[in-house]
Write a structure and sequence with these properties.
The protein is an alpha/beta fold and 248 residues long. Helices cover 35% and strands 21% of the residues. It starts with 5 loop residues before the first strand and ends in a 13-residue tail after the last strand.
């Protein structure tokens, strides 16, 4: 998929904000569609495919969390950036736990939204015709991951991940038994720099532990632990063919 063909759905009942973002992104290589109602957004996401969704929390008919749950219930891995004036840490955590890839509190700088949007688009690009075949699955004890896809399996049971969760897990699986810094994981998983007091990464890691049983309680599963003062480490042995360095 070429970025010039990227479709972005903006779901927000603030008509002035929608107009401003349409004007700001007018010269960019994206097609921005706007809807102002959560119910309409859920219907469109059920029948159409978008490359990124920009999703407000407070919406008529269905709130953003309900729209997000409906999207994830379809097993779709469309990247979602939540937008909300409710910028408290608990609200951000709730959005990430519901399946969002990132969270941007209002008011925000349109340039920051653009940067996050294009980071999501770059990481969601599908291989062009003639491109090399996708990498083989990474395996770590009972854990298996298909790089570039938000699909993991633990003990043979398939588990759906968000795009951000899958990228964070891939980075950890490529550096088994070695601490990976919070800055590296944020850059690799969320496509942006680590911000002060940013807990988004911690919420994604918590979701991975919960979904895949990486907390040490599941037999045969790797253990995902905090590395004090550094970041996180996934404890297990990784096949030599997959033990590549985490991208900078």
């Amino acid at each position: 998929m070429d970025v010039t063909a990227a479709r972005v759905l903006l779901v927000d009942d603030d008509l002035e904000l929608c107009r401003m973002l349409q004007e700001f992104l007018e010269a960019e290589p994206v097609q921005l569609d706007c809807v102002h109602d959560g119910g309409e957004a859920a219907e469109r996401l059920a029948r159409e495919r978008f490359d990124v969704v920009l999703l407000d929390v407070m919406l008529p008919t269905l709130d953003g969390y309900a729209v997000l749950r409906a999207l994830r219930a379809q097993a779709l891995v469309t990247p979602v950036l939540m937008l909300s004036a409710r910028g408290h840490e608990d609200d951000r955590i709730m959005g990430l736990e519901a399946g969002a890839d990132d969270y941007l509190p209002k008011p925000f700088n349109p340039r920051e939204l653009r940067a996050r949007l294009f980071a999501m688009l770059r990481r969601g690009l599908r291989p062009a015709p003639g491109a090399p075949l996708p990498e083989p699955a990474l395996s770590l004890d009972a854990l298996r991951l298909l790089p570039g896809k938000a699909v993991a399996a633990i003990g043979g049971v398939t588990v759906a991940l968000t795009a951000a969760e899958a990228r964070i897990l891939e980075a950890l699986m490529r550096a088994p038994n070695r601490p990976v810094s919070r800055a590296q994981l944020t850059r690799w998983g969320l496509g942006r720099a680590l911000l002060p007091a940013d807990r988004s990464l911690d919420t994604h890691v918590s979701n991975l532990r919960r979904k895949l049983g990486l907390d040490g309680a599941r037999a045969g599963a790797p253990v995902l632990r905090s590395a004090r003062g550094v970041g996180y480490v996934l404890h297990a042995a990784l096949p030599a063919h997959a033990a590549a360095e985490v991208p900078a």
